[in-house]
From TrEMBL:
PANTHER family: LP06937P (PTHR24364), TROPHOBLAST GLYCOPROTEIN A-RELATED (PTHR24364:SF22). GO terms for biological process: negative regulation of canonical Wnt signaling pathway. This is Trophoblast glycoprotein a. GO terms for cellular component: plasma membrane. It comes from Zoarces viviparus. Keywords: Leucine-rich repeat, Membrane, Repeat, Signal, Transmembrane, Transmembrane helix. The chain crosses the membrane at residues 303-323.
Length: 367
């Protein structure tokens, strides 16, 4: 009889646990985990158990999330919403998840990111994954505003890889003062400008591999030097080893201790320099300085020669004027007299036309 009672209690507990799991989801109280993977869900399911710490809602058809989507999930620390085709994240969507430490929004289509989309109570968020998450590169302006307004002062890791980013707005990371890891690989960044990484003095890892950097000008080098503690990755960029690359090559040799893939950095263009180590470019003779010195000498010589020629022409002209001074003076007088006669003729004609008596006489003659 006791054994039967125990079985009934066990079944009741089992049924209650099963009943608390949302439809089309898998729940494990022991692992504090709920998974709703590839279930064609159109919204965040309701009835997620309060014990949930790890919540995986991935591979569904959820287009928008807002504050009402994640109510009552105070214990969730790891939330994955990847691959859901999410296009809009409203402000304070995650504000109720006061224990949230890791948020994965990768592989979505974020076109609208509201200013306080990533605000979390107690600023508990440590990891934010936005890899392959932005709908297009124009969404980066929304993202910049959200990173500024979402109170992410305790964020440690940010992944923005595989987003086709062409540029980064100035000071986009300035409010992420505690960021340690920044992933920017597999984008289309063509330059590093002043204030690109402003505010990231504590950064420890910066991945810029597989972008479109042909060189890093002095402005960009100063920006990278403003990250004194960061280990850098710069591989798989199409570096062009022409004269303009020399300051960058010299900087690489000076800073190779903090560049994790320095030995693997090679020239992509021109063809004659392809696969040449970037560390060797600084010591190679590209002909830049020699050409520049020679060109400067040639240019200076040309200026001197041109000055001599122009001076000689000027002297000849003055000499010709001197020899023909009488004829020139006579010609000037003749032009003056001709102009005076022309002026007097016009003046006389004007007086005739303006005399009313002459006008009346002319009218009577016509009658």
């Amino acid at each position: 009889m006791l054994d039967l009672a125990q079985r009934i209690v066990f079944c009741a507990l089992l049924c209650s646990v099963y009943a608390s799991c949302p439809p089309r989801c898998e729940c494990s109280e022991a692992a504090h985990t709920v998974k709703c993977v590839s279930r064609d869900l159109r919204s965040i399911p309701t009835g997620i158990p309060g014990y949930t710490r790890n919540l995986f809602i991935t591979g569904n058809q959820i287009s928008r999330i807002g504050p009402e989507s994640l109510k009552g999930l105070d214990n969730v620390t790891n939330l994955s919403l990847s691959n859901n085709r999410i296009s809009e994240v409203e402000s304070h969507t995650f504000a109720g998840l006061r224990s949230l430490r890791s948020l994965d929004l990768s592989n979505n289509q974020l076109a609208v990111v509201h200013p306080e989309a990533f605000t979390v109570q107690n600023q508990s968020l440590r990891e934010l994954n936005l890899s392959r998450a932005l709908y297009n590169h124009s969404s980066v302006m929304d993202l910049a505003t959200s990173l500024r307004w979402s109170s992410l002062g305790t964020l440690k890791g940010l992944d923005l890889s595989h987003n086709g980013l062409i540029y980064l707005p100035s000071r986009i990371f300035s409010h992420l003062s505690n960021l340690r890891r920044l992933q920017l690989s597999n984008n289309s960044l063509v330059a590093i400008h002043n204030s690109t990484f402003s505010g990231l003095e504590r950064l420890e890892e910066l991945d810029l591999t597989l972008n479109a950097l042909k060189t890093v000008p002095e402005e960009g080098l100063r920006e990278l030097d403003s990250l004194p503690s960061a280990d850098l990755l710069l591989g798989e960029n199409p570096f062009t080893c022409s004269c303009g690359i020399e300051p960058f090559a010299l900087w690489l040799n000076r800073s190779q201790g903090r560049i994790g893939d320095a030995d693997g950095l090679v020239c992509a263009f021109p063809a004659s320099m392809r696969n040449t180590s970037m560390l060797a470019v600084g010591s190679l003779t590209l002909g830049c300085h020699q050409w520049g010195a020679g060109a400067a000498l040639v240019l200076q010589t040309s200026y001197v020669f041109l000055g001599i020629v122009l001076g000689f022409i000027g002297l000849v002209f003055l000499f010709v004027l001197y020899l023909n001074r009488k004829g020139i003076k006579k010609r000037i007088y003749e032009m003056r007299d001709a102009g005076r006669e022309l002026w007097e003729g016009h003046h006389y004609r004007f007086e005739i036309d303006s005399d009313p008596r002459l006008s009346q006489a002319s009218s009577s003659a016509d009658v």
